[in-house]
Every structure is written in C-alpha cells, then in structure tokens.
Amino acid sequence: MKAVAPSYYPLFKCIAGACRHTCCAMWEVDIDPATYDKYLNMRGPFAERIRSSVAVEDDGSETGEAHFVLRPDGRCPMLRDDGLCDLILECGESSLCRVCDEHPRFFNFRSDRVECGLGLSCEAALDLILNWDKGFELTDVTSMSPASHDIDLDMVPEEEPDELETEVYQARDNAIKIALSRGMRLSERVMKVAGDLWTPAERLEVLKSLESLSSEWCGIYNRIEASPDNTKSFEVIDGDRYALQFLNLFIYFLYRYPWEGGRLAGELLLMTADCVAANPGTDIRDIVRELSSNVEYSDCNIDDIMSRI
Ligand code: SF4
Asked: Quick one: which of 28, 100, 149, 200 is 20 to 30 A from 1 by CA?
C-alpha cells in the first residue's frame, strides 16, 4: 500500500462551469518547469497565446519561475466566461500545469505511504467532505486512477517510520478515534483532543491579525461576538443542525494536519463555529470555504496560528 485516502476521495469531480467560486481566479498559478518547457515547445497560434499569458520571475534558478498573469478582474487568462478552461478544451487535461492538475488534492508524504485528501477551498470537494455520511475510513488508492493522480509513488521510500513519526501518527489516529466515539458531545470530544482552547475573543484577535484575501471573509469574522467563553460556539457544534458537518470537519482537520496536532484542529473547528454562530443567515459551506481559502490555504497564516498555540 503506497497511497491512501478517505473513501470519498475517488468520488471527487470538478463541476467546472457550474462552480460558483472557481479556483481559476484570485490565485496566482505557478507553472512547474516541466510544463513550462512543454508550453515553450508547443507550436501554433494557441501556443503563442499561452506564452503571452505567462510571466517569468527571476528566482535565481536557470529557468526562473513562470506563472499565468491574472486578468485585471483576477481571473486566469485561460478561464472562459462560461467557467471552462481554454487550455483543457484546446490541448486536453494533460496540458495543465501541476498546480491546476492536482487541485484540490493534497498529499502528505510519510515514510511508508502518501496520504491523499481533498481540500475545503473547492466547493465540489467541500460538499463531498461536509456531507459524507458513510463514516471515516482510509482506502488504498495506489492503483486507482486518477485517484492517486500523477503523484510520483517512487517518492515514497517505503521505509519504517522513525519513532517521532510513529508517535505523531498514533496520536493523530487516536484523536480521530476519539472524534468518532459516541457517548460524549462533540464539544467534549474536541476538548479531549485539543486541550485548552482559546475563547471567541482570543480567536477573533488572531483572525484579525491574519492575512485576509477576501472582503467576504472579513465580513464573516467581523460579526463574531468577542465573548469570553465558548458557550455559543459549543451550542452550534453540539446542535442537531450541523452535527454531521462539524464532525466531518473536525476529522478533516485532524487527518490533514497530523504534525500540527489536535489543538490546531480544535481551534480551526471553533473558528468555524464562532463564524456560524455570528452569521446565522449564511450557508455553512460559504463560511467553511472562506475560512479554508483565507486561513487554511495560507502557509503564513497557519504558521502564525501555530506560533501562538
Ligand atoms: S473550485 Fe473545485 S469545482 Fe470549482 S473549478 Fe476549481 S476544482 Fe472545479
């Protein structure tokens, strides 16, 4: 077994033109050297269009770092008004650069396997993750195409994990077991796994200090009441309305961030609950997607949170 993933992973399918929050806008897409090389060697008018849509920054390497230059409205120059990608339509999926090809998948490499998953910033993946009602189980996706995708499985050395790695993943697996256990409210399971948690006032302070990419996200967290205890947020987590969604979300954070530990998973879950409590009229999917895009998908924001934990 070289690649594993939650059982919903192979069911993911990009909804392309039907996507309300396309990932082909607002993010600057870096083009990996192998793909850029391919673009440089393509011939014909479309190849010219690709090349004229790319900028290369001097990053000290021989080839520089290439990326698509976003249009003034923040959309990728290959994205059509109907939400489809000109690059795929003209040259097929194999012409995509690595970032576009892999999104929204993530890969956590271990000594003896790679753990694959889907990220919450994509609305199709988000729907799948939040509403998954068949329990949490890891499946072998080693030979499942395109589930294991184009990850180079030779990068998995299949070695025995060292003591630290074993400890970290045992703690993570144990935390997931606690999260799934019955007989305790979810808020109690979260506290058991995460330990001490910030208050909403403290979390709001942290959120305000982070880098925010969208005004929607600022609007969402600015409505949080800076209350000195977690009562309201726990009510949201333990309520019937979003029971499945909060459980799935907690497991997602635990699975995705084994090295950061249960505390990060607990704080991200509580940030979501703070926002849901403060925005009763907003769809939970919009809140989770905004949190994921603005907080989770920013390495510096996650580092910042970790430095305060
Ligand atoms: S966000 Fe997800 S569903 Fe939307 S265009 Fe990107 S990959 Fe497809």
From this structure: 100
